[in-house]
Design goal:
The chain has about 110 residues and is α+β, with helices and mostly antiparallel strands. It has a domain at about 45-90. The chain has helices spanning about 25-40, 65-80, and strands at about 55-60, 85-90. Strands 1-2 form a two-stranded parallel sheet. About 0% of the residues are buried.
């Protein structure tokens, strides 16, 4: 079986993008969960912010409408001091490609 590199990992096996946990090594998943555990205490602070993502951008793109999910992701990124951009798929140019052209009968 041929080994296929996971596009979420760099050449050293370090996580660079997180789009799915599918195919990630156990060590990477453990690191993600251990890192997340460190942020639990942020909820107990008066000011619920940390600066670990300052200067980073988070783009939220959901293909189905879910205000609660979008808001949860936006709050999380904001608490990490990231800049948040919410992309609206219904109003984006991606919806242009979903139209089908049907020739008129002659």
């Amino acid at each position: 079986m041929l080994y296929r590199r996971n596009p979420q990992l760099n050449k050293n096996g370090e996580l660079i993008h997180l789009l799915s946990i599918e195919g990630l090594p156990k060590a990477t998943l453990t690191q993600i969960l251990d890192t997340a555990a460190n942020f639990v205490s942020v909820n107990n602070r008066e000011v619920k912010k940390c600066r670990c993502c300052c200067g980073k951008s988070v783009f939220n793109l959901f293909f189905e409408n879910s205000t609660r999910t979008r808001t949860t992701f936006e709050i999380a990124a904001t608490r990490l001091s990231a800049d948040v951009i919410n992309l609206d798929i219904a109003r984006s140019s991606a919806s242009k490609g979903s139209r089908c052209w049907t020739p008129s009968p002659t």
